[in-house]
Structures are given as C-alpha cells and as structure tokens.
Design brief:
The protein contains four helices and no strands. With about 80 residues, it is an all-alpha fold.
Length: about 80
C-alpha cells in the first residue's frame, strides 16, 4: 500500500519539478533516488514528499459544462415562430 502511494506521489510531482525551489529540488532528487532503488521511505521522508505534493499539486474541481452543450428547449423556439 505504502509503495503504491509513494509511486503516485512521485508520478504527480514529476510534472512540477521545474517549479521547485533549489532546496526542494535537492530533497526531491534524493527521495527519488531512494524510490528508484525500490526503498520504502520512512515516515519523515514520506511527510516531506507529501508536503511537496500538497504545495504544488492543486486538485481543482472539474466544472460541469453539460449545460453549454444542451440543445435549446422547444419552448424558446415556439415563442420565436
């Protein structure tokens, strides 16, 4: 479970590498090396990884755009005739 969680964090953070500050990038690279060596991160390292994830990955709600693609109702077309 923990290794899967760790893998998803690294996959997501890969997109944000260029936005990291210098010290965050060094920390991230060290954690990534440990991950590539198939080591499971300890609690402190996992906390640092989660902190980077929470700082850079913003989960935005997906807007429901269905209303923009609906056909106009018949009532409106009847009034125009």
């Amino acid at each position: 479970m923990r290794s899967r969680e760790q893998k998803t964090y690294f996959e997501t953070l890969k997109r944000y590498e260029r936005k990291f500050e210098r010290n965050e990038l060094e920390d991230y690279k060290m954690l990534l090396k440990r991950h590539k060596d198939e080591e499971e991160l300890d609690n402190l390292s996992l906390q640092r990884l989660k902190a980077l994830y929470e700082k850079y990955h913003v989960n935005r709600e997906k807007k429901n755009l269905d209303q923009l693609f609906e056909k106009p109702s018949e009532e409106i077309s009847d009034n125009n005739s």
